[in-house]
Amino acid sequence: MAAEGRLRELVAEHLDLDREPNFDATLPDIGVSSMAAMAFKKVVEEDFGVSVPTECLGSLRKLADYLNSAAK
After folding, report:
1. 35/68 Cα distance (integer angstroms)
2. Whole-angstrom Cα distance, residue 57 to residue 44?
3. Structure-derived torsion over alpha carbons of residues 38, 39, 40, 43, reported in degrees to the nearest 10
4. Could you tell me if 26 and 59 are in contact, meaning their C-beta atoms sit under 8 angstroms apart?
5. Helix (H, G, I), strand (E, B) or coil at 65
6. How many C-beta atoms surround the C-beta of residue 15 within 10 A?
7. Can you give the pLDDT at residue 28?
8. What is the pLDDT of residue 57?
9. Taking the chain, what is the end-to-end CA distance rounded to the nearest angstrom?
10. What is the mean pLDDT of each run of 10 residues along the chain (72 residues)?
11. Which contacts qualify for 9-12: CB closer than 8 Å, 24 or more apart?
């Protein structure tokens, strides 16, 4: 999962979390507000060069899966 590694880096750089994120939990459950999620979505879109549907922000795993499929 190439996208997961890069997402971990982006999370560390752009989200103020006090621990390693659980990729299977929802973003609110790991402490990401809706406003922070939308700002992070823009960072991810710029970094990966793709448009990310909002429904892919359910969890970091769902986002990574989408990014991996978009890269094919």
Report:
1. 24
2. 11
3. 120
4. yes
5. helix
6. 19
7. 94
8. 93
9. 12
10. 90 92 94 95 97 95 95 72
11. 10/40, 10/43, 10/44, 10/47, 11/40, 11/60
Amino acid 71: pLDDT? 79
Residue with tokens 């879109």: 45
> In the chain, what are the helix, strand and coil shares in percent, each to the nearest 5?
65, 5, 35
Instruction: Output DSSP code: residue 30.
Output: G
Q: How many CB atoms lie within 10 A of CB 53?
A: 10
Q: Reduced to 3 states, what is the DSSP secondary structure of residue 18?
A: coil
The token pair that represents 51 in the structure block = 């448009």
Residue pair 32/58 in contact by the 8 Å Cβ criterion: no
